[in-house]
Amino acid sequence: MATPRALVLRAPGTNCNEETAAAWELAGAAVETRRLGEILEQPSTLDAYQILTFPGGFSYGDDLGAGRIFATRLGTTLKDALHRFHDRGGLLLGICNGFQILVKAGLLPGEGGVASLAHNASGRFESRWVKLLPTKGVTPFLTDDEPIELPVAHGEGNYVTANGTSGGNVVLKYVDAKNSPTEQYPANPNGSKHAIAGLCDATGRIFGLMPHPERHVSPFHHPRWTRDGAKPEGDGLRIFRNAVAAVR
């Protein structure tokens, strides 16, 4: 069976592309990293891949808001190519700034009066580890409901909607020490209503999350590994492995 091909798409200001590419490689994909400008020049390039990833960072310096410029460039040039990619069964993953891009491009509940990722309720950049509860069976990226721990690093991760509902399929939630979904800081680091940490579209093939799974692919990435004992692999690697298995 052919090895799935994954594309990590970067732009000026993206800074998590190398870690994300390494995670896909560990998960068994053949991965390439390319500049957004290359794909804008030849949108049909996407036809060669089964997985597309928008990694974390500060694309275009977040000068007009987190992910907005990247999202605008997608919408003006790549809209048809992205819909074709999705319709043929491709998987799209947006991590942190990538999640912001997916929302503001309308690939997940769009910003046009529906949803956005606002400044953290704490009023500052948050960099910490959080505990998360997945919902299994909705997206191929999440196939079990075992809690996972991942780091967050963002200033605009507060998921808000115009009508106060989730606006999409909530498949990842911030939880407290008892594994109960929470809106309380610091277990919920940004103040997202309904404890929303990640969403997927109706098909499950577009998945965005604020935490960074690529930063916990080795058990030694976790700050407590010496006290709690190292697991066989980091929690975040499960997300990448699940996606690769789904497109094999």
Structural commentary:
The chain has about 250 residues and is α/β, with parallel strands linked by helices. It has a single domain, classed as Rossmann fold. Helix content is about 25%, strand content about 25%. Helix 3 packs across helix 4.
> For the CA atoms, what is the radius of gyration?
17 Å
Order of helices and strands: EHEHEHEHEEEEEEEHH
Structural class of the helices, strands and pairings?
alpha/beta
Shape call: globular
Number of domains: 1
Strand order of the largest sheet: 2-1-3-4-11-10-9-6-7
How big a fraction of the residues is strand? Answer: 15-25%
Number of helices: 6
The CATH topology annotation reads as Rossmann fold
CATH class: Alpha Beta
Mean pLDDT: 93
Largest sheet: 9 strands, mixed
Number of strands: 11
CATH superfamily: Class I glutamine amidotransferase (GATase) domain
